[in-house]
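Our preliminary data section would be incomplete without showing what the modeling component actually yields. Below, a chain of 768 amino acids is followed by its predicted structure, encoded as tokens that our downstream tools consume directly.
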Amino acid sequence: MLKSFQARLIMFVLVLLALVQLGTALAVLTSLKEDNYKQGVHSIDVSRNVFDLFLEARAEQLTKGVEILTSDFGFKQAVATRETGTIQSVLQNHGARINADVSLLVSPRGELITATQPLNISETVSELVFAARRSGGSSISTMIALDNRAYQLVLVPIKAPNVVAWVGMAFLLDQALAEQIKNVTGLDISFVFETSDTHMLSGASTLPTAEKDVLFKDILSIQNILKSPVFSNDEKYLSLGVDLGMKDQWGIIHLPYGPWLMSYNYTRNQLILIFTGALALALLFGIALARNMTRPIGRLVDYATQIGLGVNKEKVKAPEIDGEFGVLSNTMQTMQDSIINREEELTYRASHDQLTGLFNNSSVELYLNDVLPKEQGALVSVNVRHFKRINNMLGFDVGNAMLSKVAERLQLWGHDAHMLARLSGDKFLVIFDRQITGQDCRDLKQLFSIEFEVEKGSNIRLDISIGILPFEHATASANSAMRRLEIVADKAREESNVCVFYEVGQDESHRRQLTIIRDLPSALEKNQLFVVYQPKVGVASDDCHEAEALIRWIHPELGFLPPDEFIAILEHAGSIQQLTKWVLNTVLSQLSQWWKKGHEIRVAVNLSALDLLDERLPSIVAKALKVNGLPVRALALEVTESAVMKDRSKVIKVLNALQEMGVHLAIDDFGTGQSSLSYLRELPVNEVKIDRAFIQYIDTNKGDEFITNATIGLSHSLGFQVTAEGAENAEGVALLRQYHCDKIQGYFFSKPLVAEEFFQWRETFHNR
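Predicted structure:
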């Protein structure tokens, strides 16, 4: 609700006015309450003065009444003669005339002679008489407490001519007196004392009984109200205590606060009405003001919304507004122009290649999503061969210029194409709505046979590979179609044909490769892979103390996977090192069991090019041997010539480190690689394995026999052992023995066997 500017403006006006009125109301009510309290306090102060004056006036009247008795001759005579009966009769009669509650006669020393009722105040009266004699006073007026009740006592001396006695009259501070004082002050009066058992206030009061009990409970302690008046809990009374000069006896003046509260509540209610009315007016005013102020803002919001929607490419007319909002309207119109221009630029950048101006990958994907599946037409992938070399040799500026010229020639060739795009780097795509023939490919090749001018007088000829995916072989998915196109493009780059068309089944082969790469980790965990061992027979002693470890993989979906297939795929995908570590640990674990039984067998593990490029390989091998408790001589490592040629300096460094450890190293498949014999002397190896291509038909092919004999002789002259792999018949084995080959490996002796079968075969071979 408060998200709109109009609502916020209305709320601002209301809150501002409410705060002002609330502040004013609080100030007025606080001032009124304080003024009422001050007036109440003043009224109580006045009533207290009247209370004191009333008691003083009453004391004077009582004193005059007692003095009349003391001046009576007959009474004096009776006192002088100590006629107790006459004295007591006179005291009762005179006390009744002046409404005294207690009458008494006291000796000059303050000793009680007689009283109209039993009293225990001799000590108190003695102190009063003594104080009066010392000060020379003619009479005494004070307050005394008798049986938890307060009395006003008047003592007057009887002189004949000296003081022969004191006559006293005590007047109770009771309900009647409280009513008299109330009639004078207009306020309620209470005479209270604190009960000794419950410490609750009790006594006479002009208050209604119910309110008196509640008020006395609220007061609790009279000490709280002696200095300043205090409200009762319900604020109906403002009470002030009066010290009567007696222990546990007090007077209380009660001011009924109801009229003040009524005045305060009336004023408060009036202010609430004024406050509510003002807020209602402010709400109406705020709504009117907000609508007037937000009307141009609303027009600008609508204008901005239309700009933001951007449904139509046409410009939206800006609203005509005066003042500051007019400046904002003009600014938004300028912004709209900039947005349109920027959108056009962004749209172009998002759908086109910035270097060549052709469509880009995103545009191709959008197009394919719209048209697939499609029967007519084809996707033509054009890749510039060895373009990276051109970049490295001539520089990126020249390379970019060449790409632009390639795009121009493709536009000449594909003038009737539906779309021409640059996918990335040196990859271009031409989309036709017609079928592409071999002649189209030859025309494109002919067009690119014309040299490109790099600089004036300097030309270069570019070679291209062409891969074609007819739409009839494309799937309904753009991603699948591009994947199939990439498959045929990769094949075109590898082959020298004019162009390569997609063939049914290539995608399935690609999917098979992806499955192999994806499933390797889980296959290792689930023991789908296992190691077999092919014996190496020593020619000289006709025994078997060595074997080569080979991998086998039975996939749950693809079935048996030939090692040549999945090893090549894993090498290409960069996952071969994971497999190598698994094979190394598996073989060493098996060797550990054999060596513990006293069978010192050495097993060779094949390494890939990626393994040899890892400088951590020696430490990995050393750690694996240590974990399995094996000596270095228990392990042999076989590497191919092609692996060595990946990076000769780094590979030779790794091989030297392994050689220094004492690991037996062998060159596998020797004679089929590109290094031939010229690099053999540089390699830190111990053994040469002649490839089966020269051994398999050695007994029938004189050329293979000659090459094998020469290789054995040369290897021996360089200090290497020689192993022949692929021996399959007795005649070939006889020739190898004749040429002094050190070890023979092949199906003539045994096919690769699992560990248990290999061990049994070895025992049988040695015991034959």
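The mean pLDDT is 81. The first strand starts at residue 102 and ends at 106. Preliminary results of this kind motivate Aim 1 of the renewal.
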